[in-house]
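Please decode residue identities from the backbone states below.
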């Protein structure tokens, strides 16, 4: 079996040694030890790659990653964690679509100096606690 030194792992994955030590303490990875040095086999390299992928693209927390890596246990089903993350991502996507729409409108709006006065844009902005059918004016 081929082993990769911690130094090579940090270079390959562009991670600080402290991150690998932390992941080890959290039980996410389990290096082999020889003469006090940490070495990683192919399965552990794959785990490190998964953790990076899930952190970067899946935006999973380390607790969520630990749950997914643990698989199904007596107290947790990893699928619940993944389903909750999908729900959070869908919510974030809806917010991003809304953000993109209003930013695009602001760029295309003909009101150069008074964007907040644009009637089309104002109709999309909700005022907390206000009755949407009535316009409040100051006397």
């Amino acid at each position: 079996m081929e082993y990769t030194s911690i130094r090579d792992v940090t270079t390959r994955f562009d991670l600080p040694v402290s991150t690998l030590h932390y992941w080890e303490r959290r039980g996410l990875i389990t290096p082999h030890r020889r003469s006090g040095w940490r070495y990683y086999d192919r399965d552990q390299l794959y785990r490190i790659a998964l953790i990076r992928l899930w952190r970067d693209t899946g935006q999973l927390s380390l607790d969520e990653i630990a749950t997914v890596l643990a698989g199904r246990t007596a107290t947790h089903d990893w699928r619940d964690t993944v389903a909750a993350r999908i729900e959070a991502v869908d919510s974030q996507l809806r917010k991003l679509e809304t953000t993109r729409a209003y930013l695009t409108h602001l760029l295309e709006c003909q009101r150069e100096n008074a964007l907040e006065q644009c009637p089309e844009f104002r109709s999309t902005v909700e005022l907390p606690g206000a009755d949407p059918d009535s316009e409040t004016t100051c006397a």
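Observation: Residues 46 and 86 are 23 Å apart (CA to CA).
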